[in-house]
Amino acid sequence: MGFFSDLGKKTTETTGKIARETKLKMKINENKGKIEDVYEEIGKKVYEKHLREENIDIKVDLESECSKLDELSKEIEDARLEILKLNQKKLCSNCSAEIEDGAMFCPKCGEKQISEPTVKEEPLEKLENGVVAPGKEQEAESVKEDLKEEIEQNNDKQ
C-alpha cells in the first residue's frame, strides 16, 4: 500500500507543479499582450501630438502608460522567477543564465554563485540572534537543534 500512496502523492505534486507553471506562463503571455496594447496607446498619443505639432512631455503625457509598462514587466519577471523555482533553477548572479538551484558555479560564465539562505536557515538565525520568551528557552533550543539537523541533511544531499 505504501508504494501506491507514495506514487499517488508524487503524481499529485507533479500535476500541481505543472498546473501552476501553466498558469504562470498564461499570465506571462497575457501581460505581454497588455504590454503591446500599452505600446500602441503610447504610439497613438505621440502621433496625435505630432499631428498637432505639439511638444511631447513624457513625464506628463505618458506617465500612466510607462507606469503600466513597469508594473506589467515586474509581474512577468516575478512569474518567470517563480517558474524557475518550480523547476529548481535560478538565475546566475552575473550573466542571468538559467542554472540549477544548487549550482556552485555558472556553467555559462563560470561565476561563483552566492548561496541564498534556505527556508530553514532564516528562522534558525532569528532563533539564535533573537530574544526568547521566558519559559520558552527549552522549546526554542529544541527547535534550533531540529532546524540545524534538517539544514545539515539538505547540505549533505547537495
Explain how this protein is built:
The protein has helices at residues 2-51, 58-61, 63-86, 121-129, 137-157; strands spanning 89-91, 98-100. With 158 residues, the chain is mostly helical. The chain has 2 domains: 2-114, no CATH class; 117-158, no CATH class. The longest helix has 50 residues, at 2-51. It starts with a helix and ends with a helix.
Topology:
Elements: H1 2-51, H2 58-61, H3 63-86, E1 89-91, E2 98-100, H4 121-129, H5 137-157
Antiparallel strand pairs: 1-2
Strand order of the largest sheet: 1-2
- Overall radius of gyration: 24 Å
How would you sum up the major sheet?
2 strands, antiparallel
SSE ordering: HHHEEHH
Helix content: 55-70%
Low-pLDDT residue spans: none
Residues in β-strands, percent: under 5%
Report the structural category. Answer: mainly alpha
DSSP summary: helix tally: 5
Q: Please, what is the oligomeric state? A: single chain
Overall pLDDT: 84
Distance between the termini: 30 Å
Overall tally of domains: 2
Question: Quick one: how many beta strands?
Answer: 2
Shape: elongated
